[in-house]
Amino acid sequence: VLRCLGIPTRVITNFNSAHDKDLNLSIDKYIDMSGKTLHVSEDSVWNFHVWNECWFIRRDLGSFYDGWQVLDATPQEKSKGIYQCGPASTRAIKEGDVNLDYDSPFVFAAVNADCVTWIRYSKKRKERIYSDTRKIGKFISTKAVGTNSRVDVTANYKYPEVKEISFKIAYSQYKNYLMDDRKILVTAV
């Protein structure tokens, strides 16, 4: 439909796509002291997820965020009370700017969340025992124009060589945003 309207659009596939249910920018797994998985988090990692990108100017966000925008026609969570996702600027996702509207934190987590394992001793006490910073957002791809070849667009979404720093900056910004709005951060890192 967007192409019919003259808006450049392409399909994006994200492998190891995070579904951050609680919007804390990480995928949390909890185990008990014997190593048994506890089912207390609704976070998950999908083998892949597909969405659309559209190219347009962002007068609402400023010219820095012009370009490819994520639009998900199959949103997994409600946003502002309805099932919708986007348009989230891929530039904002790459820069870790998760304080923007249009589901930027959700898309950031889909391509860049840390997978964290916790030992849960009690409802009030837990300990972080492992963090995988490289599992999420592999081979983010689209189809090449005129051929069936794959084009790797991972670099449009994140900086692979400084992923840990990018995540820490985004998490810090998001935590401050939540505190400013007097919201409760579900899981502190």
Summarize the entry for a quick read.
The chain has helices at residues 90-95, 104-112, 163-180, and strands spanning 9-19, 26-31, 37-38, 44-56, 67-71, 78-79, 82-83, 88-89, 114-120, 126-132, 138-143, 150-152.
Please give the structural blueprint.
Layout: E1 9-19, E2 26-31, E3 37-38, E4 44-56, E5 67-71, E6 78-79, E7 82-83, E8 88-89, H1 90-95, H2 104-112, E9 114-120, E10 126-132, E11 138-143, E12 150-152, H3 163-180
Parallel strand pairs: 2-9
Antiparallel strand pairs: 1-4, 1-11, 2-3, 4-5, 5-8, 6-7, 9-10, 11-12
N→C terminal distance: 42 Å
Overall mean pLDDT stands at: 87
Q: How large, in whole angstroms, is the Cα Rg? A: 17 Å
Shape: globular
Describe the sheet with the most strands. Answer: 6 strands, antiparallel
What is the number of strand segments?
12
CATH H-level homologous superfamily name:
Transglutaminase-like
Order of helices and strands: EEEEEEEEHHEEEEH
CATH topology: Coagulation Factor XIII, Chain A, domain 2
Structurally, the number of domains stands at 1
Percent of residues in helical segments? 10-25%
What is the C-level CATH assignment?
Answer: Alpha Beta
Q: How large is the count of helical segments?
A: 3
Strand order of the largest sheet: 8-5-4-1-11-12
| Strand residue percentage | 25-35%
* Strand-pairing-aware structural class: alpha+beta
Poorly predicted segments: 181-189
The CATH level-2 architecture is identified as Alpha-Beta Complex
